[in-house]
Design goal:
The complex is a heterodimer of chains A (331) and B (209).
Chain A lengths: L4 H5 L2 H24 L28 H24 L9 H24 L10 H16 L2 E5 L5 E4 L2 E4 L3 E4 L2 E4 L12 E4 L5 H27 L3 H26 L37 E5 L9 E5 L17
Chain B lengths: L5 H41 L11 H24 L5 H25 L8 H11 L3 H23 L5 H24 L5 H5 L14
Helix pairs in contact in B: 2-3, 2-4, 2-5, 3-6, 5-6
The chains are: A alpha+beta (331), B mainly alpha (209).
Chain lengths: 331, 209
Amino acid sequence: MSLDLHTSLHSAQTRREAFKIGGVTVGLATLVAACGAGREGDDAPGRVGSAPAPTALEEYPVDDAVLLRTASSLEYTAIEVYETALGLDGAIPVDVVPIVERLIENHQEVADRMVELTEAAGGEGWTCTNPWLMERLVAPTLELIQSNVVGVVQEDTSMVQVLGEVVAIADEVTTVQGTLTLVSSTDGLEAGDEIEFERLDGAVSEDVMAFANALENLATASHQELSVATGVVDARVAHLEAATLEARHSSVLAIATFGAEGYISPAMVGEDVPPTERGQIRHFAIESTFGQTSQIEIKAGPGDLNAVRESVILQTPAANSLVYNELACDA
Amino acid sequence: MDLETAEPAIDTSLSRRSLVTRVGAAGLAGLAAAFVIDRSTLVSAATGPDDRPGVPTNADKLVLARVIEFELAASALYESALENADDDLAVAVRVMADNHRSYAEAIAGATGISAGTADEELVAELEPLFTGSSTDFFTSAHTLEQTAVATHTALLADYESTDAIQLTASIAVVEARHATVLADLLGVDDLDVLFGNEESPLDLTGDDA
């Protein structure tokens, strides 16, 4: 029998059959491959390009000791801030100094309790500040608070733009926000030069009090969250005791700052909450119906050339700011 | 030469679109799954041990029913004090009354228990003080808030569910703030009083609570 290849390959019916056979073959091959043994290939997702393989990050467990170490780190951070503030001339109003000294004592007591509970939970007590918060929050905020007001000399070198106004350069410059005292030399000034003024009277103190209040609110919110997160009953109660104590701290600071106007946030009765004359965000003894764990905002430092002040956001501990068991105080 | 393969061409085109759609959908589903996994990890860390019940247990509900009565009584007491409050004070008193009612309602929402009945005995006991002189009002209201904080703190050890713990913690911190404001209204400047709490918790777990 002779096979007429030419005729066969040009037959439409044969092409369809060829497609069918090809499809069945591929399907069977896939099935066989799927059922085959020894398929333990690389499970990693496919990569495009020739970038170096990423290094897998270490996964550190978050246990009760980590939560308690984080809690004591917050207490030591608060102590550090208060001790720094007490060392700044006039940053804490004289009548508030005894309150701040008491706050330091209270934070130390809470820290000691957290360390005790950490050790009971099988961890090593953390007796220093929170490194992440110190580096990312506390140090930059304290630097901002202590920084001078910066103005830029204009084309007319007798004038300076400062806090959103253009005013004549003098030892004392009057702006809408108050009088600024020049601290830079004015010799040989050229357009674009920066000159500095001391912050407005009382501005450093206002920022320090706002920061202190925000830290107390942060500590309150953190302990409130930790009371839910922990699996240790003693720690749960200790966190709530700390949360209520630090809520009282925050309330006392709000009242010390604003008097009776610091009792209740106007927002609770549907009114706007205006900032202070210097643009600082007001915080009150009672700001919400339930304890809030959302972020806390304050302003820190002087306004820029356009009188815009920098915001500082405080957030309860998360993956970055937890004090893992692998960390050491002296590291 | 017959190159007419219109029907398969249409099928192929559809298949490619379908394939792209399916691959895209699979990719998005994978991405969504990744987010879900991440989120569940975070939620787990924030809501406590995995073996803890989420919603209030029957044991929790028994206690929380008493807490509702207590919070409604506190709200009723502040409502009664509103009659004597001047405009400035009325704002604070109104906020405290509303807050306590909100606590009762939130617990009712979490437990399914009706927030309908205040602890009438407590209202009857304290109402003369809440409607008396300013000093009587501030003193008794401060004591009430301190007692509330002490009670919630003591109960926290007994609760079995995450909802009960979470709700209680968020209530207690604001009641501590109420207490501080009331102490200031009372003219207290003793830091031991402002930062301390000498009140004993109410026994809301016992039969004679």
